[in-house]
Specification:
The protein has a 7-stranded parallel beta sheet, sandwiched between helices. It has 11 helices and 7 strands. The protein starts with a helix and ends in a 6-residue tail after the last helix. The chain has 2 domains: about 240 residues, Rossmann fold, CATH 3.40.50; about 30 residues, no CATH class. Helix content is about 45%, strand content about 15%. Helix 2 packs across helix 9, helix 4 packs parallel to helix 5 and helix 5 packs parallel to helix 7. It has about 280 residues and is an alpha/beta fold. The structure holds nicotinamide-adenine-dinucleotide. Nicotinamide-adenine-dinucleotide binds next to helix 2 and helix 5.
């Protein structure tokens, strides 16, 4: 007999709060945790996207960068489902490519407010639920491989994710005695609306595995990190990237360029080294 997903990761009786749940990886995580038996509350700005989650998942249209709205949402979740045992915080925006010379201060603040502060507001409220309930808990935050690798022209986004990684380590130490784990996942390129209208065949050539990931592959790691099986894993930053973080980027690029056709070489230069073309 093949054990089902639910047999492997049974989250029955656990309340899971998932942010950024209207789309992409947050949506896949919400559906995966629901399939594992958790009572899921899905938060996002996008009400229409939340509606696509279907029956059985509580949805709340919330701007996670608004601290009062986040607190109110957690209070409502506690009243309806009970205290959060799981937080999977995926809500974020990408800023687009820009030189440090063109840094837009309002944009910098917006990116940090949504990606870093908004995630922390959710972590604070989830930690409050978990501490008061006294049954432990699981917190997973979304960073990006950009935080560790440094992507030229991707400054506010990279910084907003790197800040999260440092804070997650600090929080993990404080919450470890309460059996609350705090981990960060760092996806590589994942096929979601965040990639915009990028030509995926470009990624298929450059990446070690010759393909981008899909949200469901990320959701499997999230489900495991939210389960009792991961109880001794905390303060970790875990890449989910098909090997990108492990492989030497320039080596990969030079190998690609050697084997590529001229049009692809132009596309690579334009996408990776836009300043060189100016
Ligand atoms: N797609 C990738 O290649 C990639 C790579 C590395 C990291 N990530 C990270 O993965 C996470 C999930 O992104 P995704 O790829 O699923 O993208 P996505 O754009 O499909 O999903 C992001 C979701 O966050 C929501 N959101 C944005 N701002 C919000 C706010 N203020 N309040 C509430 N919800 C808000 C959006 O409405 C959207 O539903 C993000 O943290 C992102 O930074 C994505």
């Amino acid at each position: 007999m093949n054990p089902s997903d639910t047999d492997l990761l049974d989250l029955t009786g656990r309340v899971a709060v998932v942010t950024g749940a209207a789309s992409g990886q947050g949506k896949a995580a919400a559906l995966r945790l629901h399939r594992a038996g958790a009572s899921v509350a899905a938060l996002d700005l996008d009400a229409e996207g939340l509606a696509s989650l279907g029956n059985g998942i509580m949805t709340l249209t919330v701007d996670t960068s608004d601290p009062a709205a986040v607190e109110e949402a957690f209070d409502e979740i506690r009243r309806s489902l009970g205290p959060a045992y799981i937080l999977a915080a995926a809500a974020a925006v990408w800023a687009g490519w820009n030189s440090i010379l063109d840094l837009d201060y309002r944009d910098l603040e917006r990116i940090f407010r949504i990606n870093t502060f908004g995630t922390l507001y959710c972590v604070k409220n989830a930690a409050r639920h978990m501490t008061e309930a006294g049954r432990g808990g699981r917190i997973v935050m979304w960073s990006s491989i950009a935080a560790a690798r440094g992507q030229p022209h991707d400054i506010p986004y990279t910084g907003s994710k790197a800040a999260l990684e440092g804070m997650a380590r600090a929080i993990s130490g404080e919450l470890a005695p309460r059996e609350i784990t705090v981990n960060v996942i760092a996806p590589g390129a994942i096929d979601t609306p965040m990639l915009g209208d990028a030509d995926l065949s470009f990624y298929d050539t450059v990446l070690p595995g010759r393909r981008v990931g899909v949200p469901e592959e990320v959701a499997e790691m999230v489900a495991w990190l939210c389960s009792p099986r991961s109880r001794f894993v905390t303060g970790a930053v875990i890449p989910i990237d098909g090997g990108v973080a492990a492989v030497n980027g320039p080596w990969m690029l030079s190998r690609t360029i050697r084997s590529a056709d001229p049009a692809l070489v132009d596309a690579l230069k334009a996408d990776i080294y836009p300043a060189d073309r100016e």
